[in-house]
């Protein structure tokens, strides 16, 4: 046997796998939470439960010094592992000489001391020894007791039941030793107890027990031991001074003193005794009973657990806070259950982890760990079965000198000192005697806690109240340390004190109260200030560092505490906290108002100040207030565990900031009850990675949830201004549930669907790493459709949050489906969010992916119509009646908050970019998109383009002047050159006179071109910037080609104009420049709504008729070639100069109704007839058919553009916004005025038609009516289904009450299931029918509109 200490392990045995560093990359954690909460992600880690190692931790144990490992015993409080093994030393030997290899070494902790039972066989003598753990290496030399047995069997178990009784399980025999003295107090070898035991056979036992039928044990009076033969199981817990034993489905109640049988019950029962609070019997079905030993009556209390029964109970442990069972079921499943001891709530359940080949080592109730190992493995494994909530609510009795402390000895508690008849430090467990008056010395001790460790403690307490020898000084200096307040004095270090009422008179402040002052600490817990409640609405405090008095005037409607005990001032957070015995009030230093996010009735409270939060902790509730810019931005409310109804509070204390706080409680209606301590957790302990749940992480998934209530099974989300809960996470999980989440992913679809139909609620719970059912089956369409059907049958308000991140900062199911482009799953998840999480808090799920949704052309109409992206502001500060001007009548106003912070700010350019690239006009018909575009347009885009437009008008004015001047002046200028003039005989003077007339024209020509060139140079620089920013995408916009061609054409025009102004090429260049100039004009006039529609309509028309025009030109070519052949390419005077295409032009003229018939008469013979036939066909085809076709196509295109008038207008603006935003600097992108997180829309409630036109408004009304009708029909169908379900459930309950046979119930349930399936299918059918009806109505409306336009 070897004792292995933690120093021999690469990792501590009981501490588990310690993290050398936090497994979080701080850079990756940035941006997951708001800046004020980033410290959580930087310092703490959310556990991912998807790997098995997240819950089942391994302690590497490679012990290679043996051939066979026989036994391992964990001693957790000593961080020790005991090993019994076999080594090869010539012959096989054990450390304990034992011929029976099945014998066990047994460890038991009794009264704080570790004891070991072990068996040795030397020669023919078999002995069992009892020794202390620290004396084990000395073996028999220091053993407390020796039990010599006359038969060789195996020691299976041993139990110390009390100071005098020891119980052995020896083979098939049970031996109870009853000592005449307390053997655990023996200190030397000579006082060792020795017993010689004669093991009874079955025959001898039956013979002797028959003589005493009221006995179960056969006594041996000479040796004071009692024997029992058979596989009896003794409960570790006694019941009202009775032993409880089980054998062959019978329970025996045996009196501990006389060992007489008092009751035999024909059923297995297990005794449960919790401290001195309650005693119960429990059957194998987990039913609890109160048992009266006097009347032998059983009274049913409740059932702890349903679904599984105990076939064999391996272990049962009862700790101050846990009731634990480890058992085997009838189907050979190993189950671990942990319950809370006061209310019997299930803490954890572990199934499908412990298999047959695994060996259980220990249930550690101190560290809440369940240790086990593989029989063929080298690792010891453990599971921490506790949750964050139960970890902080352990109920422990107060023990002094190994005895419970009762109410009559309790006086009071302060800080971490409990004043009894002696004073005991509850943490160091040290105590000192106080013989003087408990009130005088006790109060003095509370004021002077340091005397507890004073060497002269005994001399100090001899006096009833030691004399105050402190020196009174006049001032409090900056280097003084404020110790405490007593009566009118403030005590300082150096044995000094200050008379505070006299000291404060130095200020000019008028004090109306005398004794309302106390020390006040800063955020570093240093006593820097003295707080004084000077008047009913005035707070004064003295800062010793600055030597100044400062005042805070509290609002008149606020009350200040009457008797402050402690106060805290934090200038960074901008708060002052005042604490009394039963109240805590927090005042803002910004507006001097009380922060009303928390109730002020908080008895027994403690206050923590750290980072950017303040925690106010009481025995009822704990508040954590997170601050940003001296304002509360988030409130975390942690529900504390209620003391059971049969307990009451005595006191409350806390050792240090951010440490556990403790309640002193006793039983009600019993004055001299024992005293218990109940621990409660602080905020930071909720991040413990060893515990089963970490509720803060899911609580922080939605940034807009301003108030979060954390309870034992739920995390509830609230927002300011709303009383109703927004939603909640179901965090009531167990290790069994985690295993089920892992295993269901390995099943096929048929098994998954069956499981979801039978128990869907099980997969609604949030498990870190898995998320909920939607994250669990995020790639399984069949499973998600099954979940959707099950959700439709449930009450919406009772459902938890189902679509969320699987872990804080990880992807949501919506993100995954978008990444994988799974359209059906994407639409289903989006519809589930809209239907079951229709609140602006949850818009974060969609907002993060809005741009990608638009890219994939997802229908977002229902999303934009929901409450997710917008929120109607109902607040008194936003009046709903307001005139536009002073003289105007009152107008009804509504305010909407557009809730798209990520889309608007994370990548500010992306939203407009994807909208401009989208071919779905429905996006631009939405009020939210329109409001965003309008804001961006009015803020910076419209002014930008107007500025450029005004500059372009300068170019256009000078260019038009140049064109007109050159055109008209060229007609009046001399048409002869100087050589020609001299040839005509003109004199030099006449020539110079004519040249002088040309000078003004030249200057006009030069000046206009200089101005135009400067303007175009400005536009050229802009185009170059665009090209640099947009790169290849620059060439995808047709307007950019026009811009560049315009600049190039004008340059060529200028060159040609100065080179040869009479050239025909100049005329062509002028025409091109004029055309491109007006194209640029069309581009700019789009900034005005009236022109924008027309420009867009023209572009839309040409886009719609492009294929028709192509086909029309083909027909023109057809008839043109026919005419060319028919008339033998004879020249036509009207087409002189274009003879090659003359007949094609003639065919085009035929299409326009301009007929040329003169040449038909010149044809010969049959050609005349053919010519007229061709002419008739051409007129019919080109003029009658095609011209009417083109009119119809253009009319249809016009109608379509008119229907999408507003959408097209906003799309034009979006395109222009994109161009502008690409040129905005990176610094300007962070400007909150240009790119705000939220947008508030103020609009009048009016029934007037908007700029969309009468028909567009009519169409929208029809669409809205259709959607409303469909939604109403769906609601009615679902409501009918719910009513049917309620009737079915009531009929099931009635059937159960009437005790109908199981077969008939199953048949009825199957029929009910079939009915439900058929109703769900009919619902799907009706929905499809409604969609078909909607499509039919849409097509009908379009036809009506078309007919109307034609009229």
TrEMBL record:
Residues 956-1203 form the Ion transport domain. Residues 1278-1333 form a coiled coil. The chain crosses the membrane at residues 949-969, 998-1018, 1038-1055, 1067-1088, 1108-1129, 1141-1157, 1169-1194. GO terms for biological process: calcium ion import across plasma membrane. GO terms for molecular function: kinase activity; monoatomic ion channel activity. It is found in: Membrane. Keywords: Coiled coil, Kinase, Membrane, Repeat, Transferase, Transmembrane, Transmembrane helix. This is Serine threonine protein kinase. It comes from Stylonychia lemnae (Ciliate).
């Amino acid at each position: 046997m070897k004792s292995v200490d933690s120093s021999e392990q690469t990792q501590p045995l009981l501490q588990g796998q310690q993290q050398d560093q936090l497994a979080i990359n701080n850079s990756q954690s940035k941006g997951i939470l708001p800046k004020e909460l980033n410290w959580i992600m930087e310092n703490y880690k959310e556990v991912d439960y998807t790997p098995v190692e997240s819950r089942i931790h391994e302690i590497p144990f490679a012990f290679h010094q043996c051939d066979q490992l026989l036994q391992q015993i964990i001693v957790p409080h000593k961080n020790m592992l005991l090993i019994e093994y076999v080594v090869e030393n010539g012959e096989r030997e054990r450390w304990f000489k034992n011929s029976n290899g099945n014998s066990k070494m047994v460890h038991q902790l009794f009264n704080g001391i570790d004891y070991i039972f072990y068996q040795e066989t030397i020669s023919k003598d078999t002995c069992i020894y009892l020794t202390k753990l620290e004396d084990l290496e000395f073996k028999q030399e220091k053993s407390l007791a020796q039990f010599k047995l006359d038969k060789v069997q195996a020691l299976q178990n041993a139990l110390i039941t009390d100071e005098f009784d020891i119980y052995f399980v020896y083979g098939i025999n049970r031996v109870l030793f009853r000592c005449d003295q307390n053997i655990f107090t023996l200190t030397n070898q000579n006082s060792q107890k020795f017993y010689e035991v004669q093991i009874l056979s079955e025959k001898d036992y039956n013979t002797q027990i028959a003589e005493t039928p009221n006995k179960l044990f056969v006594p041996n009076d000479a040796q004071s031991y009692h024997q029992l033969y058979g596989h009896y199981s003794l409960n570790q817990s006694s019941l009202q001074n009775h032993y409880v034993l089980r054998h062959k489905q019978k329970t025996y109640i045996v009196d501990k003193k006389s060992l007489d049988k008092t009751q035999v019950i024909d059923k297995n029962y297990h005794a449960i005794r919790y401290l001195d609070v309650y005693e119960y019997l429990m059957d194998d079905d987990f039913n609890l009973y109160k048992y009266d030993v006097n009347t032998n009556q059983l009274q049913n209390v409740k059932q702890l657990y349903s679904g599984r029964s105990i076939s064999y109970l391996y272990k049962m442990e009862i700790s101050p806070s846990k009731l634990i069972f480890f058992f085997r079921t009838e189907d050979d499943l190993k189950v671990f259950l942990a319950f809370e001891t006061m209310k019997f709530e299930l803490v954890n359940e572990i199934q499908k982890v412990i298999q047959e080949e695994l060996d259980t080592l220990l249930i550690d109730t101190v560290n809440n760990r369940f240790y086990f190992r593989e029989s063929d493995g080298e690792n010891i494994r453990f599971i921490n079965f506790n949750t964050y909530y139960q970890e902080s609510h352990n109920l422990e009795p107060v023990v002094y000198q190994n005895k419970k402390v009762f109410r009559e000895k309790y006086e009071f508690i302060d800080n971490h000192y409990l004043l009894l008849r002696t004073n005991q430090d509850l943490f160091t467990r040290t105590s000192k005697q106080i013989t003087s008056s408990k009130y005088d010395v006790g109060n003095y001790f509370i004021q002077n806690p340091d005397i507890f460790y004073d060497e002269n403690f005994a001399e100090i307490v001899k006096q009833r109240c030691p004399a105050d020898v402190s020196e009174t000084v006049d001032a409090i200096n900056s280097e003084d340390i404020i110790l405490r307040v007593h009566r009118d004095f403030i005590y300082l270090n150096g044995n000094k004190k200050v008379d505070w009422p006299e000291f404060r008179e130095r200020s000019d402040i008028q004090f109306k109260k005398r004794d309302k002052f106390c020390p006040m600490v800063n955020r570093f817990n240093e006593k820097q200030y003295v707080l004084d409640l000077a008047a009913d609405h005035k707070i004064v405090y003295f800062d010793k560092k600055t030597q100044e008095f400062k005042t805070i005037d509290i609002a008149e409607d606020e009350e200040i505490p009457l008797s402050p005990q402690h106060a805290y001032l934090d200038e960074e957070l901008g708060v002052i906290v005042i604490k009394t015995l039963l109240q805590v009030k927090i005042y803002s230093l910004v507006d001097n108002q009380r922060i009303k996010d928390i109730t002020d009735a908080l008895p027994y409270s403690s206050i923590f100040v750290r980072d950017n939060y303040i925690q106010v902790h009481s025995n009822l509730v704990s508040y954590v207030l997170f601050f940003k810019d001296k304002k509360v931005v988030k409130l975390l409310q942690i529900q504390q565990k209620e003391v059971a109804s049969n307990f009451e509070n005595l006191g409350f204390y806390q050792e240090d900031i951010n440490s556990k706080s403790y309640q002193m409680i006793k039983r009600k209606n019993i004055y001299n009850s024992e005293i218990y301590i109940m621990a409660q957790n602080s905020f930071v302990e909720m991040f413990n990675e060893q515990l089963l749940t970490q509720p803060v992480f899911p609580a922080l998934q939605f940034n807009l949830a301003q108030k979060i209530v954390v309870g034992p099974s739920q995390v509830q989300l609230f927002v300011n201004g709303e009383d109703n809960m927004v939603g909640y996470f179901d965090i009531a999980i167990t290790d069994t549930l985690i295993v089920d989440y892992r295993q269901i992913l390995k099943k096929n679809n048929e098994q998954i669907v069956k499981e979801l139909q039978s128990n869907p609620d099980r997969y609604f719970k949030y498990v870190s790493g898995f998320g909920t059912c939607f994250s669990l089956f995020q790639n399984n369409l069949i499973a998600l459709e099954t979940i959707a059907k099950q959700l439709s049958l449930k009450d919406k308000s009772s459902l938890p949050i189902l679509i969320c991140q699987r872990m804080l900062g990880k992807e949501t199911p919506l993100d995954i489906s978008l990444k994988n482009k799974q359209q059906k799953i994407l639409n289903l998840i989006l519809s589930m969010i809209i239907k079951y999480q229709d609140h602006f808090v949850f818009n974060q799920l969609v907002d993060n992916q809005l741009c990608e949704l638009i890219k994939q052309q997802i229908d977002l109409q229902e999303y934009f119509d929901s409450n997710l992206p917008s929120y109607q502001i109902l607040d008194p500060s936003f009046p709903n009646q307001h005139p536009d001007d002073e003289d105007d009548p009152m107008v009804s106003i509504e305010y909407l908050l557009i809730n798209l912070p990520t889309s608007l700010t994370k990548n500010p350019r992306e939203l407009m970019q994807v909208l401009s690239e989208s071919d779905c006009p429905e996006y631009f018909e939405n009020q939210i998109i329109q409001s965003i575009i309008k804001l961006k347009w009015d803020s910076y885009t419209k002014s930008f383009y107007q500025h450029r437009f005004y500059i372009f008008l300068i170019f256009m004015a000078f260019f038009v002047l140049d064109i007109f001047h050159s055109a008209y002046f060229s007609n009046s200028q001399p048409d002869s050159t100087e050589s020609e003039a001299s040839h005509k005989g003109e004199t030099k003077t006449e020539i110079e006179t004519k040249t002088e007339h040309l000078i003004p024209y030249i200057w006009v020509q030069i000046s206009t071109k200089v101005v135009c060139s400067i303007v175009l140079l400005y536009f050229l620089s802009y185009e170059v910037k665009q090209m640099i920013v947009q790169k290849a995408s620059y060439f995808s916009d047709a307007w950019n080609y026009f811009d560049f061609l315009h600049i190039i054409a004008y340059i060529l025009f200028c060159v040609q104009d100065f080179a040869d102004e009479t050239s025909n090429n100049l005329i062509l260049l002028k025409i091109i420049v004029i055309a491109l100039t007006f194209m640029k004009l069309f581009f700019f006039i789009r900034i005005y709504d009236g022109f924008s529609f027309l420009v867009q309509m023209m572009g839309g028309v040409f886009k719609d008729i492009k294929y028709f025009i192509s086909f029309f030109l083909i027909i023109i070519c057809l008839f043109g070639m026919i005419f060319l052949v028919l008339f033998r390419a004879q020249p036509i005077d009207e087409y002189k100069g274009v003879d090659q295409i003359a007949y094609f032009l003639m065919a085009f003229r035929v299409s326009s109704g301009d007929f040329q018939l003169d040449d038909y008469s010149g044809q010969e013979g049959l050609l005349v007839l053919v010519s007229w036939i061709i002419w008739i066909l051409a007129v019919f085809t080109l003029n009658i058919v095609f011209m009417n076709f083109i009119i119809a196509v253009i009319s249809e295109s016009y109608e379509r553009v008119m229907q999408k008038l507003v959408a097209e207008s906003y799309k034009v603006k979006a395109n222009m916004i994109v161009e502008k935003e690409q040129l905005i600097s990176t610094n300007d992108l962070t400007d909150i005025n240009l790119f705000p997180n939220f947008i508030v829309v103020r609009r009048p409630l009016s029934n007037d038609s908007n700029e969309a036109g009468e028909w567009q408004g009519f169409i929208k009304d029809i669409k809205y009516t259709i959607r409303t009708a469909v939604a109403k029909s769906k609601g009615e169908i679902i409501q009918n289904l719910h009513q049917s379900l309620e009737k079915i459930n009531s009929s099931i309950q009635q059937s159960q009450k009437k005790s109908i046979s199981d077969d008939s119930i199953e048949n009825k349930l199957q029929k009910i299931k079939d009915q439900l399936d058929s109703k769900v299918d009919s619902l799907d059918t009706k929905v499809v029918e409604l969609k078909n009806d909607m499509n039919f109505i849409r097509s009908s409306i379009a036809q009506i509109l078309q007919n109307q336009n034609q009229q």
